[in-house]
DNA sequence: TTTTTAAGTTTAGGTATTAAACAAAGTATT
DNA sequence: AATACTTTGTTTAATACCTAAACTTAAAAA
């Protein structure tokens, strides 16, 4: 057996045991630092059972004693905590983007311990070379002698493309030219730890949702993450679980029709949200308006093609460029049409605006909330907390890491 | 104790036991009639455990022996089955509509054993009188000496309005002028059996979904029920569970914007689907077209107000009236805009068209499928089976009855 | 008849939980 | 200081439920 398996998973345990372990771990995280008695009182289990399970958790490097604290009139209680940092167990979440591979080492609390970013080599990225790169980063993030590598819970990977989260097979990743690539199997073979592969928007959603609402008890109410960028995607989380759908394409927010008879979309439909509020559409709209109203804005050599990147457009918005602001406000109106529908339909408690466009702040948020007030039903709208994503590029890694960590206290009802 | 409690519920049992009971009941329903050995092989449990649990199930009037069958080389196996009909346990589902109270007695297989419809008294319906009526129908459906009443699993009630399915409290029911009416508590006090109260569209959705896909294993993929009538509502079922949302309003399909800037809706927004494709809108549109194109159609005394009920409009559609057909086709286009968005967003495996408008058949279905092909993404659309509801007015009762029955084999992970 | 085979039950042993007794380590009281 | 409570954590005995294996029952095969 390899050294990675030194800290071995409990292979068998009854369902009863799993449920009680999960209960204890959950309340421990919530009340930490906390003594066994309190865990017993809080979970409703007997002190004997709590002791027995805590012993197990200590053996597995999940929990440690912090020594006795002040007496409460009798024997001093021994405080327990979930082991923080490298000394406890860890997970690593990777984000694969067009140009970078970013790995984030996360501890048992879901906190970032270390991160590392590599530029991807130019040209076609062979899946096998990605596996090499990931293995390299795993070692760099932990160090071959690091306790973290011996207690590595698992490795996650977020890929921009269509992924079957169960098999971990990348069905299509246009940006990399991959089709039916069994990345999970390849990585597990190499790394000898459980691997989770999923779409990166969904992973980011998990990260942001956990960060915005990191109760140990996942809320049963829907929470929506919206990714506004070149494309417009989303992820819906219900009872802490991502909605995948029958073909793993759930969350296609960008192809909701908001302007019937409007501009043709790449998907064949007309008036899709993405076709009117995706970043490319906003850039064109900006150029169009500028040409019509203030040609002076387009400072360029005469005869030069008016070229503008999305990034520079977003900078202009942030800098307070009024024309760019108008374009964003127009987009907000369109986004609100789709979002109001989804709010009415799913009745979420939280909507997180992510993706590059979300980072312009009130330029988007103000017109969006106004339009929502006009278009969404009052009752569902009143339940929604609308926030801007805050984890930026780290969301994917954090989401995957936290997901792997939370699987430690998950109850598996076999079939 | 009252006589209703003669067949008493198992009050305590470990989680392990619950899981195994559920497993056995599920496979029993699937393979019935079947012997203990086969259950053991199929579930992976030992024959001893199967015997012990089957004994319990027999005691609880859920399962019975059918006698031995042909030997397979040794002792003859004793076949078991879930008790059908009144001899086994039953549940009753009620539908409360504007004018009627319909009760449906359902057996352990979810099959209809008996049903009864009462006209509601004219005028305001006191919640307390509804409780009386329901108690009366329960007795009429079972008879005071009927075995069914002694094995009644529970009673369900579908109400047109906003219901908290957990507390069973009717928050708002405009048609009856109720607000915060704790119907569940009132009924449980009277009937002394568990009561489930929910919105009737959601209950109908459960009924149709179970009927269309009655595997004992609920599919993890979303399934959508659409109710097309005066209003337009829907219910989304994921992993066999209804999506409720943060304020129990999930499923508001009618207020998805399909025509921005279109006609004003009662909700304050403009261009809601309900405002252009709800039955009242279709009737007005029909009258408008008729007035413009074929005034002769509107056969009425001169000076009479052109009055047309929804029911008569639907009859016209069914009779092949071309003008009415055009109106439905127009509506289908609008419905498709919203439905395509929801299909893209939730990626369902099944969409069931319910409500009065759905019953016109291909007049709706043909233009709808055509429009969907234009507007929905190919991959999600390819996963959808689009069907018309088939249970009619019985859907609500069947859905509630089947839900109550399925709760018998449900595992409850306390908090 | 006797042997073999299969279905169902009983029994012995293991895991996991709880209540209750017990040990450890403090505070409060005399 | 000695004694009496208190509280925490552990050990112990009883219980629930599972499994493997032995056993009983009842048929087919030899």
In words, what does this structure look like?
The structure is a homodimer of 415-residue chains. With 415 residues, chain A is an alpha/beta fold. Chain A folds into three domains: 3-83, Winged helix-like DNA-binding domain superfamily/Winged helix DNA-binding domain (Arc Repressor Mutant, subunit A, Orthogonal Bundle), CATH 1.10.10; 87-214 and 395-409, Nucleotidyltransferase, domain 5, CATH 3.30.420; 223-389, ATPase, nucleotide binding domain (Nucleotidyltransferase, domain 5), CATH 3.30.420. In chain A, 40% of the residues lie in helices and 20% in strands. Chain A has 14 helices and 16 strands. The first copy, chain A, has helices at 15-31, 36-43, 47-59, 127-142, 147-150, 183-191, 200-212, 273-277, 279-293, 310-318, 322-346, 362-375, 378-383, 395-406; strands spanning 34-35, 63-68, 78-82, 90-96, 100-106, 112-119, 152-159, 162-164, 169-173, 178-181, 195-199, 223-228, 232-238, 241-242, 350-354, 385-388. In chain A, the strands form four sheets. A five-stranded mixed sheet of chain A has the order 6-5-4-7-11. The first copy, chain A, has a five-stranded mixed sheet with strand order 14-13-12-15-16. In chain A, β4 and β5 form a beta hairpin. In chain A, α2 packs across α3 (47-59) and α11 crosses α12 (362-375). The longest helix of chain A is centred in the last third of the chain and has 25 residues, at 322-346. Chain A is globular, with a radius of gyration of 24 Å.
């Amino acid at each position: 057996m390899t050294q990675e398996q030194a800290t071995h998973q409990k292979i068998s345990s009854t369902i009863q045991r799993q449920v009680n372990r999960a209960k204890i771990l959950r309340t421990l995280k919530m009340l930490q630092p906390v003594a066994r008695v309190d865990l017993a009182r809080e979970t409703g289990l007997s002190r004997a059972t709590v002791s027995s399970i805590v012993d197990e958790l200590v053996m597995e490097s999940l929990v440690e004693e912090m020594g006795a604290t002040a007496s409460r009139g009798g024997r001093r209680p021994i405080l327990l905590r979930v082991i923080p940092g490298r000394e406890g167990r860890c997970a690593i979440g990777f984000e694969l983007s067009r140009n970078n591979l970013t790995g984030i080492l996360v501890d048992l609390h879901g906190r970032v311990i270390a991160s590392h970013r590599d530029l991807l080599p130019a040209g076609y990225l062979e899946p096998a070379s990605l596996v090499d790169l990931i293995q390299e980063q795993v070692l760099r993030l932990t160090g071959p002698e690091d306790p973290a590598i011996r207690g590595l819970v698992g490795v996650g990977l977020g890929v921009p493309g269509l992924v079957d989260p169960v098999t971990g097979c990348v069905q299509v990743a246009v940006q990399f030219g991959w089709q039916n690539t069994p990345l999970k199997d390849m990585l597990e073979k190499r790394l000898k730890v459980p691997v989770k592969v999923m779409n990166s928007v969904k992973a980011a959603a998990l990260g942001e949702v956990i960060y915005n609402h990191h109760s140990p008890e996942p809320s049963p109410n829907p929470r929506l993450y919206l990714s506004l960028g070149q494309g417009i995607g989303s992820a819906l989380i219900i009872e802490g679980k991502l909605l995948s759908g029958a073909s793993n394409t759930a969350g296609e927010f960008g192809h909701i029709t908001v302007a019937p008879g409007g501009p043709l979309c790449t998907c064949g439909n007309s008036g899709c949200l993405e076709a009117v509020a995706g970043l490319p559409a906003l850039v064109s709209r900006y150029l169009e308006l500028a040409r019509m109203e203030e040609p002076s804005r387009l400072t360029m050599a005469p005869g030069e093609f008016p070229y503008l990147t999305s990034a520079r457009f977003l900078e202009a918005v942030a800098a307070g460029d009024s024309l760019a602001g108008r374009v964003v406000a127009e987009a907000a109106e369109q986004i609100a049409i789709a979002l109001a529908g989804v709010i009415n339909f799913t009745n979420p408690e939280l909507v997180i605006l992510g993706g590059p466009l979300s980072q312009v702040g009130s330029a988007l948020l103000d017109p969006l909330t106004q339009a929502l007030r006009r278009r969404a039903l009052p009752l569902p709208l009143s339940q929604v907390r609308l926030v801007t994503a805050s984890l930026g590029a780290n969301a994917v890694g954090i989401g995957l890491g936290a997901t792997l960590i939370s699987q430690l206290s998950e109850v598996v009802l076999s079939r």
